[in-house]
Amino acid sequence: MEPYFAKILLIILIVYIVAPTVLTRFGQVGVISRATKGKGTVVLTFDDGPDPRYTPQILDILNRHQVKASFFITGAKAKLYPDLIKQITSAGHEIGNHGFRHKAAWLLGPRATITEITDTNRVLEELTGKKPIYFRPCWGLYNLSSLWYYWSRGLKVVLWTYMSWDWAKHATPESITRRVLNKLRDGVILIFHDSDSAPGAAPGGPDRVIAALPQILEGITLRGLRVAPLEEIMAGKNNGSAAKRMVIFLWSFVDRIIRLLSGIKDIKDDQSFIWRLALRRYHGQEWLMKDGSLLKKGDYYIEIHINNDLLLKLLGEHSSTERIAVIAMREVRHSLPKLARLMKDDKRYGKAKLLLGITLLHRGTVRLGFTTYELKPGLFRMFTGWYENLLLSLFHPGGFKNSKTYREKLSPKYVVMTRQELMRRYPPAGIPETVAPR
């Protein structure tokens, strides 16, 4: 059990933490990390504030140079210093969400993640009268919950092109100025800090920013560039389809890793088979099925998974959700006699007493002979729901926004078909023999 548990834990870490961060930080999927080139613009952003020691001084410098910046605010400090929030917005600067208490998403569960975002939204909306539309995750880290929340609501996640490293222990005004001006290019988004209270920040870092900022602003002007607000660089920026293609490409890579670690296998030389399979042993309490079959501890069952590569091909050919559902159901129906033949002829899979899967799209499966069962409340059900919802949003032809209606009405369930029910409904006699799985 221990090696299997370690694999499950590793898969959860990959899906919940690693994959979302790789998609965004390295794949640059669904995030903004620079402005469009050719417009001669630079974006200044300030994180972790507001702070009564530093924020007013930074606002004064920006006002003298007549430039607008973007401040990514923590909800706790906004609540503590509401006058500073009003001072920022009154000066015409933009405000974004930077979490409530500056906690890394890697250390937060689904509920805590959403709470960090929504609590900050609520505070900022109360103070400014506007819902925040810009978000920057703390340290640029994501988890599955934060990524799903941003994308499902069409929110704009802003990262950065270059750091000023103003928070580093040995940073000086000169090193900050030199680093920023050396990296200064058309379209860059720069990140500074107007607070030194976040974990890892060197005390007094914003003092060095205040000393360096006038020279940096002069350097921007001397290079023929100008400081632009996020609102300007976001205008007309729509990379949704390209982002989705990249998400699908990278997610296919992650999917292969998950299948390798968890023993989910394709049927060899059968590229039209809608299922991928894993033979498992049951370790729970005795489970009485509706047809009288009994699944006991130690019994084998076949865990069924949709072949996402084949599903993507179907989605690529048809834009209608209804049409895709019809085709997918047809493929499932055609696959069941093959599964019956596999359980009859293959020694390994022949040990299984039933087929079992988990899906949000379980309504049509009843007509095919599957029985649905509720998942027990708990962490597994919560994680499975988030994962299935993300996949539904990813594969939905209309994207994250248009799949919202479907997601809110669905919850994951077990779909089960016993061996005797499979053989009764889909007798394997006369079905062309399926090659044994690799």
Keywords:
438 residues; alpha/beta; TIM Barrel; six-stranded parallel β-sheet; five-stranded mixed β-sheet; 16 helices; 47% helix; elongated; disordered C terminus
Structural category: alpha/beta
Radius of gyration: 27 Å
CATH superfamily of the largest domain: Glycoside hydrolase/deacetylase
Instruction: Catalogue the unreliable spans.
Output: 431-438
Overall helicity: 40-55%
Beta-strand segment tally = 16
What's the helix count?
16
Mean residue pLDDT: 84
| End-to-end separation | 24 Å
Largest sheet: 6 strands, parallel
Please report the first level of CATH classification, the CATH class of the largest domain: Alpha Beta
Q: What fraction of residues sit in β-strands?
A: 15-25%
How many domain modules?
Answer: 2
In the CATH hierarchy, what is the architecture of the largest domain at level 2? Alpha-Beta Barrel
CATH topology assignment of the largest domain: TIM Barrel
Q: What general form does the structure show?
A: elongated
GO molecular function, one term: hydrolase activity, acting on carbon-nitrogen (but not peptide) bonds
InterPro entries: Glyco_hydro/deAcase_b/a-brl, NODB_dom, Polysacc_deacetylase_ArnD, YkoP-like_dom
Organism: Pelotomaculum isophthalicicum JI
Domain NodB homology: 40-228
